[in-house]
Design a protein that fits this description.
29% helix; 5-stranded antiparallel beta sheet; 242 residues; alpha+beta
Length: 242
């Protein structure tokens, strides 16, 4: 799968007359070397057809401050600013132009619509939940991990559909966050807002053998499984709380 992505990405670069990334030749896809942010953005936009846009990034001598005007930004560097979220695109030339000007910009996925949505939860709780769901035989989709939270990518859903699903539940852990239409998600290999780097805990894989369509589970299956996994914590609490 990685070799196929690498070949497609190099053809894109050749068509756009964009040079190879110095840090990682595209032909080395699958060799275990981290991709450049441009490569990652092009793969998402032009190969997976996921709309992306650059995050605002960091500023300051130590690169710890968000480049946006808010001195108390709670997600430094990891949110849209200029361009805004509505500018997210799958157009390879636009993506190449953005990251050609700002090669260190984080890669943001605009969730919802025809693009994947996501459910995120604290990293330690997510790791335990994923082990449990794997043991139950549930097929999960791609998982994006930061040092503090993991995001499980799921098939697109509407806000109405999500609302009906949550209303039918007696309890939903407050640690769950939902990234649907009008939202965004930081993608690998972007720097995480909390420090460290975003990575694939579980990379996208085909829906069927040889298929170009990626596997994404439905929101009902994932939420139901996570709510079940959260029950019976010591003291009657939620296993997804930390």
């Amino acid at each position: 799968m990685r070799e196929i992505l690498g070949r497609r990405l190099q053809r894109l670069r050749d068509r756009l007359k964009f040079p190879r990334a110095a840090s990682r030749p595209v032909s080395e896809a699958g060799a275990g070397v981290a991709p450049s942010l441009l490569d990652a953005a092009l793969t998402c936009a032009a190969v997976r057809h996921w709309p992306v846009l650059p995050g605002v990034g960091r500023a300051g001598a130590d690169s710890r401050r968000c480049a946006c005007p808010d001195p108390d930004c709670v997600v430094p560097g990891a949110h849209p600013f200029d361009p805004g979220l509505l500018a997210a695109t799958t157009d390879a030339r636009m993506v190449a132009w953005w990251w050609g000007r700002r090669p260190t910009a984080p890669v943001l996925l605009a969730t919802g619509g025809a693009a994947p949505c996501a459910v995120s939860l604290p990293a330690k709780a997510a790791a335990r939940a994923v082990v449990r769901l794997d043991a139950q035989g549930m097929r999960l989709g791609p998982i994006v991990a930061t040092p503090t939270r993991w995001s499980l990518l799921i098939a697109p859903y509407s806000l109405e559909r999500l609302g009906e699903l949550l209303y039918a539940k007696d309890h939903v852990p407050s640690s769950l966050r939902f990234h649907g239409e009008g939202g965004y998600l930081l993608l690998p290999p972007s720097p995480a807002s909390c420090g460290g780097q975003v990575r694939w805990e579980r990379e996208p894989e085909p829906r069927w053998g040889g298929s170009e369509e990626l596997w994404l589970p439905e929101v009902e299956a994932v939420v139901h499984a996570l709510v079940e996994a959260s029950s019976s914590a010591p003291g009657g609490g939620s296993r997804l709380a930390y």
